[in-house]
Amino acid sequence: MKKILLAFSLSILTIAQLVAQDKTPVSAEKKLSTYEPGDRAQSVYFELLGAGLTYSFNYDSRFQNTLNGLGGRVGVSYLSADGNSIFTAPIMLNYLLGKHGKYFEMGVGATFVNFDSNKANNSNNEILFVESSGVYGNMVFGYRKQPVDGGFMFRAGISPIFNANNFLPYYGYISLGYSF
Question: What is the value of pTM for the model shown?
Answer without folding.
Answer: 0.74
